[in-house]
Every structure is written in C-alpha cells, then in structure tokens.
C-alpha cells in the first residue's frame, strides 16, 4: 500500500530531475536509458519503503545509480536535493499528512512526464529544428537532393559532401568520453 502511494511521487520527483533526464536523452550509459530510468524509479521507491533511510544514504544511492547506470557524475548537489525531497514526501505520506503532501507536490514545477511514459513515442528536444527557421532541418528528413543523401549508383562523393564529413576524434581523449563537435555549414 505505501509503495503504491509513494511510487508516483518518486516518478514525479525524478521527472523533474534534470540530470537524469539529460543522461537519458543523450544516451549516457547502456542502451535503453528510458527503461533503465523507469526501473531506477521502481528500485528507489522500493528501497525507501522497505528500509529506514536517511538523506545521506539515499543521496549515496542516487549518486551510485547515476554513475553505474548512466556513467554520469552530478557535481551540482542535485542527488542530495532529490534525496531530501523524497525523504520529506515519504515522511509526510507515512504520517498521513496528505493535505500538506498534496500542497507541496502541487508547488513543484510542472514538467513533461517523460519517465512514466514510453519516451520512444516522442522525439527528443535536441532533434527538433526551429519551425520558423527554414535553414534548420531535423536529422530525419528524407530529402534525396541533399548533399548527405546516400549515393545509390556508387558515384564518387562530391567535394561538398566531403567537406561535410565529421572530423576524426582526437586520439588524446580519455576512454569512455566522446568529443562532440558541431557541423559547420558551407
């Protein structure tokens, strides 16, 4: 019973956690980040309900989960803030202070509920072009006239296509890190 009441609260708090959302959107960690985040929410809710937790324990758990599952280290104290909220909401729930709990939840910033819903149905924000800017196109365009279109007849790539090739990654980058560069339009 307590788990069933607390799990949606955990989902709501994690939906508002920018570090987790960015880690999932940018594919940090193993493939299937959305599912991992959903399982993480279940695990956190069960951990809090089945154990006597304090803020330090929960903060450490959140930091470990972010590091192990998403290869992400948060230097902004957000795991501590998330832990603090979860502990507060759990204690209000256990004490039966539902009106105060509801008021605090309603005071939280409104956000898209990406964690509770399958993310594959929506396109991540970084893939959207500005609808007012005709020079921006999404990566999913099927415009065969573009220089990036695959050559079906095996013709050699034009010089404009060669200039659009991504630059090779620097060799001195630490293992596990990826260098991301913007493409320059000519």
From TrEMBL:
Matches recorded under Pfam families: WGG (PF10273)
Biased composition (Polar residues): 156-165
Function comment: May be involved in 20S pre-rRNA processing.
Region (Disordered): 116-186
InterPro entries, A to Z: Pre-rRNA_process_TSR2
Organism name: Parnassius mnemosyne (clouded apollo)
Annotated keywords: rRNA processing
GO biological process, one term: rRNA processing
Name of this chain's protein: Pre-rRNA-processing protein TSR2 homolog
Comp. bias intervals (Acidic residues): 132-147
Family: Belongs to the TSR2 family.
Organism lineage string: Eukaryota, Metazoa, Ecdysozoa, Arthropoda, Hexapoda
Record-annotated membrane-spanning stretches: none
